[in-house]
């Protein structure tokens, strides 16, 4: 499922807060926008075990 709501891709460096829009360009800084929806989650994720292992290894 794709969200129509987009967020400024450079909001961390260009703005104090996220700027949401429906356009392909940010209305405030004219930068590119990205899809604001999180990545889909699947319990059968074939690489989930490896990501969790890497995350635990990085935390130590």
Features:
single chain; 60 residues; alpha+beta; three-stranded antiparallel β-sheet; 2 helices; 3 strands; 27% helix; Ribosome biogenesis protein Nop10
Describe the structure.
Helices cover 27% and strands 13% of the residues. With 60 residues, it is of the alpha+beta class. The chain has a domain of 40 residues. The N and C termini lie far apart (35 Å). The chain is built from two helices and three strands. Strands 2-1-3 form a three-stranded antiparallel β-sheet, with no helix packed on it.
Average pLDDT level: 87
Uncertain stretches of 5 or more adjacent residues:
none
Q: How many beta-strand runs?
A: 3
Q: What helical percentage do the residues reach? A: 25-40%
Name the quaternary structure: single chain
Tally of helical runs: 2
Distance N terminus to C terminus? 35 Å
Order of helices and strands: EHEEH
Largest sheet: 3 strands, antiparallel
Task: Kindly provide the radius of gyration, computed on alpha-carbon positions and rounded to a whole number of angstroms.
Answer: 16 Å
Strand content: 5-15%
Give the structural class.
alpha+beta
- What does the overall shape look like? elongated
Keywords: Ribonucleoprotein, Ribosome biogenesis, rRNA processing
Pfam family, one: Nop10p
Region (Disordered): 29-60
Organism: Halorubrum aidingense JCM 13560
How would you summarize the topology of this molecule?
Elements: E1 6-8, H1 11-14, E2 20-21, E3 33-35, H2 48-59
Antiparallel strand pairs: 1-2, 1-3
Family: Belongs to the NOP10 family.
Function: Involved in ribosome biogenesis; more specifically in 18S rRNA pseudouridylation and in cleavage of pre-rRNA.
Pfam families: Nop10p
């Amino acid at each position: 499922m794709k969200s129509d709501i987009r967020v400024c891709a450079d909001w961390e460096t260009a703005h104090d807060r996220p700027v949401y829009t429906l356009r392909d360009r940010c209305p405030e800084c004219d930068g590119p926008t990205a899809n604001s929806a999180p990545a889909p989650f699947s319990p059968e994720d074939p690489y989930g075990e490896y990501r969790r292992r890497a995350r635990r290894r990085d935390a130590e």
